[in-house]
Specification:
Helices cover 51% and strands 12% of the residues. With 719 residues, the protein is an alpha/beta fold. Pathway: Lipid metabolism; fatty acid beta-oxidation.
Amino acid sequence: MIYQGSAITVSRDEDGIATLTFDAGEASVNTLSSATIQELGDAVAALRNTSGLQGLILASAKEAFIVGADITEFHGLFDKGEEYLVDMNLRVHDIFNAVEDLPFPTVAAINGLALGGGCEITLAADFRIMADTAKIGLPETQLGIVPGWGGCVRLPRLIGADNAVEWIAGGTQNRADAALAVGAVDSVVPADALASAARTLLERANAGELDTVARRAEKTGPLKLNASEQMLAFETAKGYVAGKAGPHYPAPVEAITVIRKGAGETRERAQRIEAEAFARLALTDVAFNLVGLFMSDQAVKKKAGAYARQADRIAQAAVLGAGIMGGGIAYQSASKGTPILMKDIQADAVELGLKEARKLFGKQIERNKLTVEQMAERLSNIRPTLSYGDFDGVDLVVEAVVENPKVKGGVLAEVEAEVSEDTIVASNTSTISISRLAEHLKRPEQFCGMHFFNPVHRMPLVEVIRGEKTADAAVAATVAYAQAMGKTPIVVNDCPGFLVNRVLFPYFGGFSLLVEQGVDFQRIDKVMETFGWPMGPAYLLDVVGMDTAVHAQAVMAEGFPERMAREGKTAIELMFDNDRLGQKNAKGFYAYEEDKKGKPKKVSDDTAYTLLEEVIRGQAELSDDDIIARMMVPLCLETVRCLEDGIVATPAEADMALIYGIGFPPFRGGALRYVDAKGAAEFVKLADSLADELGPLYAPTEKLRQMARDNARFYDAAE
C-alpha cells in the first residue's frame, strides 16, 4: 500500500501499476471535499516518492466516479472572501498539476458520473477510458460559477474551443459516445472491461505506441487558435450564449471570457485567470442562491426518497378523466415504465387523451430521444377503457376529472367501490380540500391529493396532499409513484389551494390591486419578467385560464376571507365575465394569434384596456421597485404563513415548490431566501408600509416580526 486515507487509497501491483481509488466510505457517492483534496495532495506526494512505478490508474469504488466538489461546503467557503477562494483554487491546481506531471503515464477509468471537479481530475490524467454507461461534464455554470479546477483550461485544449464552450456554458452531462466523438475520452468500453482496458492503455503508452509527452504538451501549452479563429469561437458564441442564458445568469458568458483570456497563456497563467473568475462569481447573490437551491433540491429529493422506501412499487396505475390532463398523466406514467389504465365515460375523451399521449411521444421521436419501436412499446403501456373492468388489479388511481367538488366526490366514491381495499385513490385537484373530498369515501385513510401541474410532461413538481385521515402508507405510495414518473414530489398538508396555489393567488391579488391603481398590466408584466419570472402575471393568467383563476380565487377567498376576499369586481373576474378566458379562446388580457409553429403568440388588444376602465380607481405614480414590492410581498408573506401553519414542513420544500411549480426565479433562490436576502427587519418594514395603504394581504405575521427583532433567518448561513 502506497497510501491509505479515509477517502483515498493508493495500491501497487507486481507490474508497478499504481491504482488511486476514490472511496468515500459510507457515503453513497464520491465528492471532492476539502478533506479529500488534502488526501489527494498527500497521495500524489506519496506517488512521487515511490520508485519503480510504471503507471497510475485513477479509479472509483462507488457506482459514480466523482460527482464533483462537496457543494455543502460552498457557502462556508464563499464566506471567506475572494482572496481566500483564489488561493484555495490555486492550491487545488497545484495538486492536479502534480498528477499531470507525474513521471509515468496516467489514465482515468471513468466508471460512472464524473462531474465538475470529478471531470477536472480526469482531465489532469494523460488518458481517459469511459464505461459506456457513464456520463461526464462540467455543470458549474448551473450553480452560478465557472469550473475552477482546470476545466476552462484543459478541456478546450483537449476537445477544441467550440466543443468546450458548448459543454461548459451549457453545463451538460455528456454520454460516453458523445465524449468519445469530440475526443474528451480515448476509449469507451463496457463497465466490466474498464480495469483491463486501463491497464492495456498504460502498457501501450510505456511501449511508445502512445505519445504521453505530446499529450501533456498539448494540455499545458497555449490553445492553438489564430485571431480569426478566436473571434469565431468566442465572440460569436458569446452572443448566442448570452441570449440563451439571459441577463440574470452571468456564469455561462464569463466561462467563455475565461477560456478566451487563457487561450494564449501557459497552464499556470490560464489557471490563475480561471481561479480569479471563479472567486468573483462565487461572491455574487446568484451563485449563493443557486448553490442554496441545489442543496434544497437534494434535501427535497432525499425526503421524498425516504417516503418512497416505505412503499411497495406501483405496478399498475389508472387515471380517471382522459382529456389533456389525463392524457398527460398517462403519457408520463407510460413513458417511465408504469402501465396505466386511462378511463373516461366518453369515447371521444379517451381518444383525446390518447392523441395527447401520441403527440408527446411523437415529439420525443422528432428530438431523437425515442425510436418508433420504443414509442410503440411505451404507448402500449396505456390501456384506454370506458369501464372499470380491470380496476381490481390497480395499485393507485389518479382522479383527474373536472374541478368540481360534487363531480369529483361522485367519481371518487364510484371508483372506490371498484378497486381493492389496498388501492390508493388520489385526486388531481388544484384547490379543493382533500379532507372535504374524503367525506365521500369509506376508506379515507387510502385517499390523498396528487396535484400535477400543467403541462404534466414539463412541470417537475407534484404536490402530494395529506388529508386529515390520510394514512402514512398512502402518502408514501403516492410519493413513490410520483418519483417513478420522474417528478419531484413534495408532501404538504391540506388547506385551500394547498401550498402553491395558496401562495400564487396573493401574488395575483397584488396584480389586481395594481391594475385598480391604474398601472398598465403590460408594464407590470415587463417589470416582473425583468425581475426574473418566465412570464408576467397578466400573461400567466391568460395561460392558466380566467375560468380556472376565478374558481381558484373564490376558493381562496372562502378559505382566507380576511386577506383574500375582495369587495367589488377584480380585473380577473372582469375578463371572465366578458368571456375573455385567455389562450383557451384566444382573448384575455392579451389577444392570441398562431405563430409559424402553430403556437399561441400574444399581441396587445385595445379591447382589454377598454374593459379594464371599469375597475380602475386611480392613477398611482409607481416606480418599478414599487411594482415589484406590491407583487412580491404578498407572495412571500403567504409562503411564511404556510410554513408557520405547518402546510409545508421546511423552508427548502416551500421554496422548491414555488420554483418547480410556478417558475419562481431560480437565481433568487425562492420566496424565503428572498426574505433572507432582504433581511427580516427590512422586509417587515416594507410590508408594514404597504399594509397601511393596501390592507391585510400585506400584513406581516407576529412570528415574522419576532424574527425581525431577533435578526433571524429561515436558512442557516451554510444552507
